[in-house]
Amino acid sequence: MFLEFSPLEEHYGVDEAMIPYFGRHGCKQHIKVPMTQVVAIAGEPVYLPCDIATQDEDDAVLLVLWYREDLGTPIYSVDAREKDFGIAERWSDESVFASRAYFLPERRPAELGVDRVRSTDQGIYRCRVDFKQAQTRNSRVNLTVIVPPNKMVITDDKGDMKQAIVGPYIEGDSFTLKCDVSGGRPRPWVKWYRDEVEMDTPVTVLSGGAVRGVLRVGPLTRTDVRAAFTCRASNHLRSHPIETTLTLDMNFPPLTVHILGSNQPLSARRRYDLLCQSAGSRPPASITWWKNGHRINNAKETLSTDGNTTTSTVSLQLTKSDAGAKLACRASNPQMPSVAPLEDDWILDIQYVPETVVRLGTNLDPRNIREGTDVYFDCIIRAHPYVYKVEWRHNGKTLIHNVGQGVIISNQSLVLQGVGRKTAGNYTCVGFNAEGDGESKPFSLDVLYAPTCRSSQQRVHGVAKQERAHISCHVDANPPEVSNSRMLLQFRWTFNNTANSNEVSDTYISRAGTTSTVTYTPHTEMDYGTLLCWAHNRIGKQRVPCVYHIIAAGRPDQVHNCSVVNASLTSFGIRCSEGFNGGMPQSFLLEVREILTQELVANVSSAVPRFTAIGLIPGRTYAAAVLAYNAKGRGDPYPLRASTLRPPEKHHVHDKSLDLPRTAFQMSGAMSAAVGVGGVIMVVLVLFLIGVKQKCAKRKPRSGPPPSSQPGSPDKLREKDDSESDDRNPDIIPSDTDHLQLDYYRKQQVSTISPPPGSRMPRGSVAGVRGSIPAYCPLRTAPPQHQTMIDSSLSQTQQGIPPPAGFGSGSCTLPRGSSAGLTAMAAGDRCIPLQHLRTLPRPMATPTPLPRHPPRDTPL
User: Fold this and answer.
1) What are the C-alpha distances in Å from 333 to residues 281, 327, 337, 428?
2) For the chain, which terminal residue's Cβ has fewer other Cβ atoms within 10 angstroms, N or C?
3) 0.70 exceeded by the pTM?
4) Cβ pair 469, 558 in contact under 8 A
5) Ramachandran assignment for 198, one of left (phi > 0), alpha (psi -120 to 50 degrees), beta (any other)
């Protein structure tokens, strides 16, 4: 069977070859298979044809296999035996084409595309097509891969490599250029061109497969100056040739050469354009720049209008390593070999910004600097000119020599005495000279210290019974985290109340970084107390624990220290200090009322006790009240009076335009008498009216307004609010408002351990806090009288713990209906402060016996 094929491109060629074929009856026979010649350039895509067209419409392609003759197995396949040919499974041998091959069945004929063809892809390929009905079809492709040359080196008679300029030569000289080209398949041809005119180029093959093209030029004339000699090599018409062009340089000897502005100091890292001028050369001199014997090639030359002076400019960006280097400008003309090139040199003086390095003391370990140790640094400086000042910085801020604070600066050394956590950070030293200031890279000082309680965290938590609370303990520690699966920072919690102290189980404790959280749920009054949190790391244990008071949530305390600020004609501001929040988040409210009518004219709420009342009447005094409130209710109002400013008085401005010239005016005797009589009549009339008004006032008795119409004072309003609050919450016992004015006491620490009876503890003593302040009672709600008796009997009989001692003095509250409590209060005995116990259990009318069970000290 013969297959006809017409090439689609010029690089296709068709040939025929005999391949063995086994017929259906197993008989071996040879058939002629067309051979297509395909030429490709390395690195470009190539397409190998394969005819898969069918003559019968009912026929279809089942399988397409590509072979390379030096390999016995397929290298690419399209399997459509179980699928449609459009979605047939395609496979490519990873060792041959891999992902570079793809089949294009839509083309006529179909083609196997190969991207980025390689030199190793050259060979004979066979395409086998199996049809559903027709006989298997084979076709062959001879792929020839052209590899262009890849390297060209041009040398002169001396063997020097030339890249752009050849020479300079003098008139009458001859020279030879050798162009060596390596790489490429097939072997490339090499040709020389002068000004794009082909020259006679003898070609020789070197060992290793390189090809050399030789160009002999000479004797030279003036017309040869700046002639362009190009060496060009290629091995196929379709491949892009490689080439190198050289320019011939010819010069006459110069007379003078000078570097302009030499012998001046230069700054490092700055770019300078240096000039060198040469005169007297014909043609213009060739000026070259040299630094320590190395030529600088980026020079630019300009020629004067008369052609006698050549100026060369070189752009240099010098560094400190160029200090002391010799910069030379040479003007030469090889036309006169007996005359040495003229040269002007310059010994470079490079000045640069100080380079500084911070170095820790040699006997100090930067990974084990603990709090309280002494640390010293040295500043290593390299500068020209030398520094006139050295400065030390901590986190970008300049350090000042202060022996009292443990900062000692001496020359280029820094000593830190007794470092602490605030001392840690980045330290740099800065050197100053005429070039500027150079700052070193930061040296990070890491100070290790034992845990301490972090400030600005909530210390008092108001929690209701059966309410789950999450108490977080935040500490500062270094190191704080986990290393090598070992906890470097660990926490311990204890709970204290008036009876005992218990360790908190680890099952209720969680940890995240430097924060530990305990889950706490109070069930009884004994579950209110103090939680203490300790942490420790490998440096040591926390000395002073973090203290968190668990109290029964209640109404907030009264604000204090209120004052009026920023008063204007229609507004004024009020600033207060907040009191205890009752253990819950609190907000604040300002009410402004008319003093006489008690009409509400302003109502302002805020998250902080800072208010501004606007839209008021100028020159009027108002009754203001500031109170705090939370989810449990309102606190006691703080009354005060505030006034707006009075409007300025109106002053009449004298109008000079009304001034009239004075004239002589004389009052006659009749006119004077009339004026006197009129004045006397007016005085008598006024006296008469005053007497009549006083007489009427004596006859009519003064009666006050009915009680319902009397305007209430702020104090009465506050009493009314308190009575209404008591009606709403009958378990609240009112207290004297004088005690509510002692708001600053609420800012103090709260003790949770009651002193034993008869002991004299310092008032307000709390866990190392000393001071003469009123003592606070335990932060727990007092149980009803019968419950107290039962709990006391149980604790005395079962655990041997004495009943709680008396509470500290102060404004106190007791359960209603407790005669014992009233008697104790009357006797001035100790009791629970009102500002901490807002809500107390209701007394039971008839005490019922409760089941005896051991008291729960802590819900944990």
Assistant:
1) 8, 20, 8, 55
2) N
3) no
4) no
5) beta
